[in-house]
């Protein structure tokens, strides 16, 4: 029986028109095609062609887009930068993606690196089950005008982005350019089914609370830890606010984080 050769995913090479006649480049394209790599070539003629070719590649499911040209071609292929929000904590610390607190934060900071490398997001769930003996919710109060919550929180997520450590969609409705933060609280009541679902696939449960806010204040009777994009911050008071359009960032076309 003849061995089956794995099918290679298609790639698109976008060339500046000035480079289309390069003999060595043509040889390189032919070489990769003969090696079994589906490589399509598009040549730019005027401004806007490269951006249109990228959009077509996304629609057709092309895995890799290659820019062949100078700075102008590369900038057009990459797409225009878009303004994104950042979050500020206590007027001196910042995060772009997410701040997390509670037992889930202790798990993400304590999970061994070797376990993370071997199992990915599942490592946090497994390590969490192994550390149930240390399970302790954080007592706190979270408020802003028109919103108030007080109780024992197992997990607190304040998301400008959607994913917490390990790839869990803790704040699945967050957008990075809407001037809002998504707050998600998982209370200590009925904590086991909530923890299992939250750490494994991020599904909402009846005992979780979610809200969209432009700022919030967290007060705790005892010191708690917030993880700001991987950087721990300890304290009893946290004032967290969003700064709209603070940075510009190049993001993929049709990025789900954009409003």
In short:
The chain is of the alpha+beta class. It folds into 2 domains: 11-78, Probable inorganic polyphosphate/atp-NAD kinase, domain 1 (Rossmann fold); 84-249, Tumour Suppressor Smad4 (Sandwich), CATH 2.60.200.
Written overview of the protein:
It is a single chain. The protein has helices at 23-34, 49-60, 71-78, 103-110, 113-119, 122-130, 191-200, and strands at 11-16, 39-44, 64-68, 82-89, 93-95, 98-102, 138-144, 147-159, 181-187, 208-213, 215-228, 231-249. With 259 residues, it is of the alpha+beta class. The chain has two domains: 11-78, Probable inorganic polyphosphate/atp-NAD kinase, domain 1 (Rossmann fold, 3-Layer(aba) Sandwich), CATH 3.40.50; 84-249, Sandwich (Tumour Suppressor Smad4), CATH 2.60.200.40. The strands form two sheets. Strands 4, 5, 6, 7, 8, 9, 10, 11 and 12 form a nine-stranded antiparallel β-sheet that branches. Helix 2 packs across helix 3 (71-78).
| CATH architectural arrangement of the largest domain | Sandwich
The top-level CATH class of the largest domain is: Mainly Beta
Q: How do the helices and strands follow one another from N- to C-terminus?
A: EHEHEHEEEHHHEEEHEEE
- Given as residue ranges, the uncertain stretches (5+ residues, pLDDT < 50) are 1-6, 114-127, 202-206
Count of domain modules: 2
* Count of beta strands: 12
SSE map:
Blueprint lengths: L10 E6 L6 H12 L4 E6 L4 H12 L3 E5 L2 H8 L3 E8 L3 E3 L2 E5 H8 L2 H7 L2 H9 L7 E7 L2 E13 L21 E7 L3 H10 L7 E6 L1 E14 L2 E19 L10
Parallel strand pairs: 1-2, 1-3
Antiparallel strand pairs: 4-5, 4-12, 6-8, 6-11, 7-8, 7-11, 8-9, 9-10, 11-12
Helix pairs in contact: 2-3
């Amino acid at each position: 029986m003849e061995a089956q050769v794995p099918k290679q995913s298609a790639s698109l090479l976008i060339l500046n028109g000035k480079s289309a006649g390069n003999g060595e480049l043509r040889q390189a394209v032919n070489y990769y095609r003969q090696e079994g790599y589906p490589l399509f070539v598009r040549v730019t003629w005027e401004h806007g062609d490269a951006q249109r070719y990228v959009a077509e590649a996304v629609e057709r499911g092309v895995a890799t887009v290659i820019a062949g040209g100078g700075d102008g071609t590369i900038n057009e292929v990459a797409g225009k930068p878009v303004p994104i929000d950042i979050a500020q904590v206590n007027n001196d610390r910042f995060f772009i993606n997410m701040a997390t607190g509670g037992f889930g934060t202790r798990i993400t900071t304590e999970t061994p690196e070797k376990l993370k490398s071997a199992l990915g997001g599942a490592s946090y769930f497994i390590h969490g089950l192994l550390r149930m003996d240390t399970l302790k919710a954080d007592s706190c109060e979270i408020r802003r005008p028109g919103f108030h919550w007080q109780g024992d929180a197992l997990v607190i997520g304040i998301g400008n982005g959607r994913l917490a450590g390990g790839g869990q969609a803790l704040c699945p409705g967050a957008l990075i350019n809407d001037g809002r933060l998504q707050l998600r609280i998982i209370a200590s009541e009925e904590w086991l089914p909530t923890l299992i679902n939250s750490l494994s696939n991020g599904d909402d449960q009846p005992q979780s609370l979610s809200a969209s806010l432009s700022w919030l204040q967290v007060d705790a009777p005892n010191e708690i830890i917030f993880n700001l994009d991987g950087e721990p911050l300890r304290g009893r008071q946290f004032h967290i606010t969003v700064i709209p359009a603070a940075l510009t960032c190049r993001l993929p076309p049709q990025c789900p984080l954009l409003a």
